[in-house]
Amino acid sequence: PVTRAYAAVDLGASSGRVVLGLVDHEAVTVHEVHRFPNVPVQQDGVLAWDVDALFAQTLTGLGAAVAECGRRGARLEGVGVDAWGVDFALVDDEGRRTGPVRSHRGVGDPRPLVAARGIDESEVYAATGVPDQAINTSVQLAAAVAAGEHAGDGLLFVPDLWVQLLTGQRGTEPTIASTSQLLDPRVDRWLPQLLEAHGAGGIRMPPVSELGAVAGRTTPDITARLGLSAPVPVIRVAGHDTASAFAFARPVERGARVEGLVSSGTWSLVGLPLAEPLTIEEALAAGFTNERGVDGVLLVRNLNGMWLLQQCLAHWAGEDGAPVPLGDLLAAAGAGPGHEAVLDVADERLLPPGDMPARIAVLCAEAGRPLDGSRADVVRAVLDSLAAAYADALGEAAALAGCTVGRVRVVGGGARNAVLCQLTADATGLPVTAGPVEASAIGNIAVQAVVSGARSTVEEVYQDLTGTGSDAVTYRPRGERHHDDHPGGHPVTSSTATTSS
Ligand code: LFR
Hints:
Layout: E1 3-11, E2 15-23, E3 28-37, E4 41-43, E5 46-48, H1 51-72, E6 74-83, E7 88-91, H2 111-117, H3 121-128, H4 137-146, E8 154-157, H5 158-167, H6 174-177, E9 183-184, E10 189-190, H7 192-197, E11 214-217, H8 220-225, E12 233-235, H9 241-245, E13 257-264, E14 267-274, H10 281-285, E15 289-292, E16 297-304, H11 307-320, H12 326-335, H13 356-366, H14 375-401, E17 404-411, H15 418-428, E18 432-434, H16 439-451, H17 458-464, E19 472-475, E20 498-500
Parallel strand pairs: 1-6, 6-12, 13-17, 17-18
Antiparallel strand pairs: 1-2, 2-3, 4-5, 7-8, 9-10, 11-12, 13-14, 14-16, 15-16, 18-19, 19-20
Helix pairs in contact: 12-14, 13-14, 14-15
This protein binds beta-L-fructofuranose (LFR).
Protein name: Sugar (Pentulose or hexulose) kinase
Region (Disordered): 469-501
Family: Belongs to the FGGY kinase family.
């Protein structure tokens, strides 16, 4: 029987990639066929995503996927697209973009727009599961409408825009739609009163399909450009990269001992999968968002991530006139002593691009954590702070969900950062399993393999994963900051990471 193949287009906020998933009787393997940087640009005076360049890179990647299928005698049965959340395009009736696709890194102060909405945050939270955050689609849309940007246009989130460019079809699915603060995640419906309240009552919201629906087939033009002999179905996978990254997770039960989730990429998303949104006041006060997952919702805190290090490296490269090797800095940072005092990685001053080392120095001073002036110490401050933020979010999510976190899973690019993973194990007092790195692409492929019938459940796809897609490393906590209910009950001092699958 022929090997079945699925292409995942995974657009991250710092880089994009196309990954080919091959599914035969026994095994599922994943192969990265193309990778490209994603750097926001100035368009019409705003910080925007370079959609034309990114889509051209996507087609290069899909072309490479088609060629790889040819070499391996595999049949391409689907394409799926996942991307970062909240940002959107406005499109006219013909589906043409009417302006730049703004980056959430360029948002202004949301407070006047939130005030003008005239609805309490707790009411909005109860309806959408999403707290007020500067990057929310809701306030970005209010700002666009207030600026006179095509109030009658249709809205498409980034993965939906890609699907439309590939198939000509307009629509969305629950995971990306739920990042907007405009959707009821219990029934996956838009909330017209909330759209009105943001001045966006005239915006045509995309119809919300079920997860896994076939959006359409590649248009004749795309089919020809990719060198395909026939159109290929484009599947509405979990379009939100976070939901794809956590596709393996099933909702936790109260009283259970569970695996805490960390998706560590440009952003860090930390929490637990739940069957239903948790919108009690305590969850709002603790800053948790409830966004749709492949199954149920993800109760996660949206925190800064590798963005902090990326921006530091970019700044130092500017100073030196040459790229700064992260590996050397991480080694030096990992060797240093570390601090109890940490900065708040969710501080909004860390959101926009810019001189990150200087901002970190300010926040460290505020936190009573003086820096020693070395770059390695800046990196260490960031990693200590991220690890502490992960531990804190996991503890609070568990308290809210009424369960105990017994181990931690880190997926995404941060899973490659051994210092961060070790510090996370230390800060939580729990074993941390890191990997897979390409979690979003794998979740994207997993949903396609299930809807096309190559596997009957998402779990089966993960069970059958072999090769790079299944790589995982476990870190044991060191030292005294030891969780009460850690299995074994005594500090584990070994810092050696062990490979497991
Ligand atoms: C992660 C992510 C987060 C979202 C942030 C901004 O890549 O999708 O979930 O809140 O990007 O879009």
